[in-house]
Every structure is written in structure tokens, then in C-alpha cells.
């Protein structure tokens, strides 16, 4: 069956990095991957064209796609839009919510060639392989009520941190099953010493644990988890947490790998439909300069092949091609170090493509 793949380049460096990832996808098609690829507008680019960050045409295309590849959205150009619902980031949150993409997988893997590019000592990160499982369609990013309003003569801002048992249970199951396929260690990160919502989170994780007797479940407060991630990251195998804590911890984990430009992600719903995107944003500070690292986006294509299109051998080939390019000493500026050759976004794309063709 021919699946549809939708590419949403987005804003800032988004079009530069998705252009390189699209070339890899096209190479997969040339090798027999049976997909129909189309493009759409999301975020600031969609706002500029249609006055909406998530036009209905894009949403319809997204619903029909088995896999969506996103660059990134947002940037200073749109930060002044007063109506929050029209901001680029709301377009992204809208796709996640409308498609029910609750299971966000963010693997932080330190390629051996990049151990020296991490801000931590190489021995702390060499061989690192963590999977952060982040709940993506609930929690404080979506909770109601929310707003900014006048109370007692001054403005107050408020959001609601809320999770239902069923939301916690379904992300818990994703994480337990992921741990079963890996080193069988699951650390649930919460703030159960302060927040009722995470007392419930912890209770549900404990309730699930007997169903996965081969998995060792532990709990950690999020402040300690942030510290432990930079103190001794290799203690973690799978980490499961809510939407906001996962957002923050995955950016911290990114630096363990050398750069946020290395971290891909998958956001899945129950039917295996998924959106795939680098964990970073639109990097307005380097947009248009041709220096962004496209590897997180290219590795996101590999995740799409593995999790939504069921061609894991092709995914492994892309990952091996990335490894080969790093072996050859090619680096974008964010991961450059002594003795490596600094290349542009498109040169990095060329090299991964050549390595892929030779695999
Ligand atoms: N999934 C998405 O679309 C996301 C969008 N954003 C949006 O992106 C915009 C910028 O946000 P920031 O907080 O600056 O985060 P950011 O992730 O865009 O950038 C943080 C730093 O990392 C660098 N960086 C990011 N990706 C890189 C890459 N591929 N290669 C080399 N360097 C890279 C940037 O140059 C910057 O110095 C904001 O409008 C924000 O809302 C932020 C996070 C996620
Ligand atoms: C831009 C936000 C909507 C989310 C974010 O930072 C992320 O998903 O990593
Ligand atoms: Mg983030």
C-alpha cells in the first residue's frame, strides 16, 4: 500500500534542514520505498500565507499522511502576534493534539565520534543511549483554564497542569514497553513532592509496574533529574515524564550528544501515525546562513521509516550513513572540534546521501 508522507518545512532553518532530509527520503523512494510525498505550510509560513498557523488544508493533509516530517516553527517575526492562537507554535501544538500524537520519543544517543563535542567530559557521555518518553498532548501546555486576566487591580497569568489517569496510563504503557525492548530500566520523572497531578502520575506508574515485572521502575523528582542528567547521564535507560518536563529535559539531554542539532524525535498516536521532527526549534539566529545541522532531521526520517513505515532496515541504513559521515570527520559548525572539517548544511546533506547510496 502506498503511504502518504507530508513535509512541513516551517520557519527559520526549517526549510534548509528539511530540504536535506527530503533528498534522503527521495533516495529511499529510489530504493523502493513506496510513499507519495507532498508539502504543506505550518507555523509562521502558514500565518503569512493564510493568516492561520494551521490552515485546514494542512490539517487535512496531515490527517491523511502516515508520516509527517516537520522542520521547526516560530521566530521573532511572529512573536508579537497578540492573539496567542495565531502564533506559529500553536500550529504545531494543533497538529499534535488533532492527530492525538501523545507518545513523543526523544532518543539521546552520543555517537562515539562526537563524544568530544559534548560539553561534558567524553567519559561521561561516550556510549550514552537514553530514550526520553514525553507525554505530548496533555499537561500544562494544553490544560484549561488558561489565560491572562485582571484580578484585584492587576494582571495575572495562569495555566493548568492537569492529567487524567487514562492519559498517564497510555504514556506509561509506551514507556514500559520501550524499556522492555531496551535495558529494562524505567525512570519516571515527576514533582510528586509538590504537585498533586504528579502524585497521581506516580501512583499510576506504580500501578502499571506489576504488569511489566521484567522492568525495574524508579522515580525521580524533576529537579534532581536535571542534575543527574548532567552528573551521570549513563544511569538512565528510559525516562518517562510529562509534556513540559520532557520538553526541558530533552533539550538538556541534547547537549550530552554534542548538539541539539543531533536529536531526532517521533510523535506517535495509537495507530502508528507519526510526526517526525528534530527536537530543536527554528534557530532564527543562524537561519538563512546555510550552517544549520541537518542530521537531527535526517535521523527523524530514519525514525519515520522505523516507527510509521515499517522499514527498519532502511532506517538503519540512514543511521549508518550518518555514522560514516561522522567517521569521515565532517561536521557542521555546532559539532566541529579540532581535526574535523566544517561543512555547510547542504554539504552535510550531500555527504549523507553519498554514504547512503554506497550502503
Ligand atoms: N518544534 C519546534 O518547532 C520548536 C520551535 N521552537 C521555536 O523556535 C524559535 C527559536 O527558539 P530557541 O529557544 O532559540 O531554540 P532553538 O532550538 O531554535 O535554538 C537554540 C540554539 O540552538 C541552536 N540550534 C538549534 N538547532 C540547530 C541546528 N540544527 N544546528 C545548529 N544549531 C542549532 C540555535 O542556533 C540556538 O543557538 C522560537 O520561536 C521557538 O518558539 C522552539 C523549540 C521547538
Ligand atoms: C515549540 C513548542 C511548542 C514545543 C517545544 O519546544 C518542543 O516540542 O520541543
Ligand atoms: Mg522544546
From TrEMBL:
<dbReference type="GO" id="GO:0009098">
    <property type="term" value="P:L-leucine biosynthetic process"/>
</dbReference>
<feature type="binding site">
    <location>
        <position position="251"/>
    </location>
    <ligand>
        <name>Mg(2+)</name>
    </ligand>
</feature>
<keyword id="KW-0100">Branched-chain amino acid biosynthesis</keyword>
<feature type="binding site">
    <location>
        <begin position="281"/>
        <end position="293"/>
    </location>
    <ligand>
        <name>NAD(+)</name>
    </ligand>
</feature>
<feature type="binding site">
    <location>
        <position position="106"/>
    </location>
    <ligand>
        <name>substrate</name>
    </ligand>
</feature>
<dbReference type="InterPro" id="IPR024084">
    <property type="entry name" value="IsoPropMal-DH-like_dom"/>
</dbReference>
<feature type="site" description="Important for catalysis">
    <location>
        <position position="141"/>
    </location>
</feature>
<keyword id="KW-0028">Amino-acid biosynthesis</keyword>
<feature type="binding site">
    <location>
        <position position="96"/>
    </location>
    <ligand>
        <name>substrate</name>
    </ligand>
</feature>
<keyword id="KW-0432">Leucine biosynthesis</keyword>
<feature type="binding site">
    <location>
        <position position="134"/>
    </location>
    <ligand>
        <name>substrate</name>
    </ligand>
</feature>
<keyword id="KW-0479">Metal-binding</keyword>
<keyword id="KW-0464">Manganese</keyword>
<keyword id="KW-0963">Cytoplasm</keyword>
<feature type="domain" description="Isopropylmalate dehydrogenase-like">
    <location>
        <begin position="4"/>
        <end position="352"/>
    </location>
</feature>
<dbReference type="GO" id="GO:0005829">
    <property type="term" value="C:cytosol"/>
</dbReference>
<dbReference type="InterPro" id="IPR019818">
    <property type="entry name" value="IsoCit/isopropylmalate_DH_CS"/>
</dbReference>
<dbReference type="GO" id="GO:0051287">
    <property type="term" value="F:NAD binding"/>
</dbReference>
<dbReference type="GO" id="GO:0003862">
    <property type="term" value="F:3-isopropylmalate dehydrogenase activity"/>
</dbReference>
<dbReference type="GO" id="GO:0000287">
    <property type="term" value="F:magnesium ion binding"/>
</dbReference>
<comment type="pathway">
    <text>Amino-acid biosynthesis; L-leucine biosynthesis; L-leucine from 3-methyl-2-oxobutanoate: step 3/4.</text>
</comment>
<feature type="binding site">
    <location>
        <position position="223"/>
    </location>
    <ligand>
        <name>Mg(2+)</name>
    </ligand>
</feature>
<dbReference type="Pfam" id="PF00180">
    <property type="entry name" value="Iso_dh"/>
</dbReference>
<comment type="subunit">
    <text>Homodimer.</text>
</comment>
<feature type="binding site">
    <location>
        <position position="247"/>
    </location>
    <ligand>
        <name>Mg(2+)</name>
    </ligand>
</feature>
<dbReference type="InterPro" id="IPR004429">
    <property type="entry name" value="Isopropylmalate_DH"/>
</dbReference>
<comment type="function">
    <text>Catalyzes the oxidation of 3-carboxy-2-hydroxy-4-methylpentanoate (3-isopropylmalate) to 3-carboxy-4-methyl-2-oxopentanoate. The product decarboxylates to 4-methyl-2 oxopentanoate.</text>
</comment>
<keyword id="KW-0560">Oxidoreductase</keyword>
<feature type="site" description="Important for catalysis">
    <location>
        <position position="191"/>
    </location>
</feature>
<keyword id="KW-0460">Magnesium</keyword>
<keyword id="KW-0520">NAD</keyword>
<comment type="similarity">
    <text>Belongs to the isocitrate and isopropylmalate dehydrogenases family. LeuB type 1 subfamily.</text>
</comment>
<protein>
    <recommendedName>
        <fullName>3-isopropylmalate dehydrogenase</fullName>
        <ecNumber>1.1.1.85</ecNumber>
    </recommendedName>
</protein>
<feature type="binding site">
    <location>
        <position position="223"/>
    </location>
    <ligand>
        <name>substrate</name>
    </ligand>
</feature>
